[in-house]
Amino acid sequence: MPLSPLEIIFFIIILVMSIVIHEVSHGYAAFIQGDSTAERAGRLTLNPLKHLDPIGSFIVPIITYFLAGIPFGWAKPVPFNPYNLRNQRWGETIVAAAGPASNFLIAIVFAIIVRVSLFFTLPNSFITICASVVLINIALGLFNLVPIPPLDGSKILFGLLPFRYSQPFRRVYERYSIILLLVFVFFLSYILSPIISFIFNHLI
């Protein structure tokens, strides 16, 4: 069923703010580990203009929405210096994981709100917006866990591998990352749709 203009506006607002929170979470994960690079760059803010990327925040979500029915995307990477992190072994992995973790946390919180709303008389529009927050954040969290640069999943994968394997693998992987990402967006993103629906239905 096609979305109304008002629903599209709310959909875009939810998507943008979810991406922003995702990026700010990266910055705070680095900040609490001793790196203030994101803070000095003015990226520890919820101002969307500081975070949005023309391709990842607009073009890719539109394409994936029409291809898979659910938007995926990313924003400008939050700068951080891994050498400033107190935990040199796992610090970078923690920073990478903070973004998807924030999306899953948001999805859980708003799913609880939807469930609690069953005991109260609340407008259907409010429940619909909350459910949209759940759906979009599940999609963003899962998409960013895909292990293809520049997505967070690749950084988590590199962090889990032993150093002697991760660095050569990273160089080769990043060389073909754009091709791999385009292949995923255009041909394989639909694979995530049933997974997203499964999680969404169980949460809601």
Task: Describe the protein.
With 204 residues, the chain is an all-alpha fold. The chain contains nine helices and no strands. The chain has one domain. It has helices at residues 5-31, 37-40, 54-68, 91-117, 124-144, 152-160, 163-175, 177-188, 192-203. It is globular.
Which features does this protein show?
204 residues; mainly alpha; 9 helices
Quick structural gist:
The protein has 204 residues and is mainly α.
Summarize the topology.
Blueprint: H1 5-31, H2 37-40, H3 54-68, H4 91-117, H5 124-144, H6 152-160, H7 163-175, H8 177-188, H9 192-203
Helix pairs in contact: 1-4, 1-5, 4-5, 4-6, 5-9, 6-7
| End-to-end separation | 20 Å
- The helix/strand order is HHHHHHHHH
C-alpha-based Rg, rounded: 17 Å
Q: Point out poorly predicted stretches.
A: none
In one word, what is the shape? Answer: globular
Number of H- or I-type helical stretches: 9
Largest sheet, in brief, is: none
Proportion in helices: 55-70%
Structural class label: mainly alpha
**Mean pLDDT, all residues:** 85
Number of DSSP strands?
0
> Strand percentage, roughly?
under 5%
* Domains, number: 1
